Amino acid sequence: MKEIRLEVIRAYPVYARLLNGPNADAIRQGVEQALSAFVDRVAEPGKDSTVRDELLRKFGRVEAYEGRDMGTLQGAYRLGARVALRRAKAVGRHYHLSATVVLAFADALFAYVEELEAISREGYVEVQSRAASEVSALRRKLLHLILAAPPLSQSTVMELCEAAAWQLPAEVTLVALRSPVPDQLEAGLPADVLADLDIPQPHLLFPGAMTPQRLATLEKALAGTQAAVGLTVPHDQAADSVRWARRALQLVDEGVLADAPLISCEDHLVTLWLLSDPPLMSQVAARELAPLRELPASRRDRLLETLRVHVSTRATAEQVGEILGVHAQTVRYRLRNLDARLGDRLTDPDHRFALEAVLRALDLRGGAGD
C-alpha cells in the first residue's frame, strides 16, 4: 500500500495534497478496501461490494469537483495495478510460481482495474450531470430576468451572470420557436445561447447579432422546427425582440407572412409595425375612411384599391390603370369620387400619411375598409 501511494504521488503530483491531507485516511481506507475486495473476489466471487463501490464513486466525484478529467484517476489506478503486479512477480519468483499463474493474476488484476474505473466514472458523471443541470437552471432564470418587465437592475443581472458562468453582452437577438421543441434541439446550439424550451412559447437568446454562421447553426439545430428571429437590440430591450419574433409567427398563422422554416423580423419591419396593434389600426381606419362607410362594399373596395395604388406609387392615371387592369378614364373617375368624399384628407400631410398606412395595413391583412 505504501509503495503504491509513493508511486502515485511521484507520477501524479496533483494527488500529493489529497494523499497527505486531512482526507488521507479516508482515501487510504478506500484503496485498502479496493485491494481487499480484489482478494475477496478470488476467494468469494459473489461477495457483496457495496461499500467498495460507494468509495470508488466518491473518488470519481472528487475528480469532478477538482475539475480534472477521468484520465488522471485512470492512470493512477493502472499505475497501482502495475506496482501490485511487480510485487506479485517478485512473490512468484520467490515461491517458484509458474508463468501461467502470474499471467492469470495479471489478467484478473487489469480486468479488476477496468471495473474500478467504470464505477468511479459513475460518480464522476453524476457530479457533471448535476452541475450541468444546475447551470442550465441558472441560465433559464437569467433569461427570465433579462426578459423581465421592467428590466431588473444591472447588478442583479450581473450577479446571476457570474453564477451561471455567462458573460452579459451589450446586444442580444431573441428567437421565438414553435412548440413543441425537439429534445435534441438544445444540444445543437452554441454554448453561449440561453434557452427556455419547456414552455408554451419557447425562445432562445443569442448574444450579439445573428451572424450568417450563427444563422446556419440555428437552422441546423432547428431541424424543421419553425422559428422567427427577432431584431438585435441592447440587452435591456430583449423583451421587445422576442415580442416581435412571436408576432412574426402569428402573422404566418394569419396568412400575412409567407410560411417558411425560419422568418427574419428584419425582412418584415414595416409589416410588423403596421400590424403591431390591429385594434388600434382598425380605429384609425374607421376614422380616416369614415366618408366611404355608407358606400356598397364592392364599390368601396374598388375605390380603396385605386386610392392605395395612387398614394403608394404617386403614378399617373394611365400607370395606375395599367397596374389595376382598368382604363385610365375609370381611374380618373374614381379619383374624382375619392376627392369629393375625402376632401382635405388627401392633401393634409397628416391625414394623407394615416391614409397610406391604413391602406397598406388593410392590404397586408387582405381586408377591405369595413
UniProtKB/TrEMBL annotation:
PucR-like N-terminal domain: residues covered: 2-147
Record-annotated PucR C-terminal helix-turn-helix domain positions: 303-361
PANTHER family in the cross-refs: CARBOHYDRATE DIACID REGULATOR (PTHR33744), DNA-BINDING TRANSCRIPTIONAL ACTIVATOR ADER (PTHR33744:SF1)
UniProt protein name: Helix-turn-helix domain-containing protein
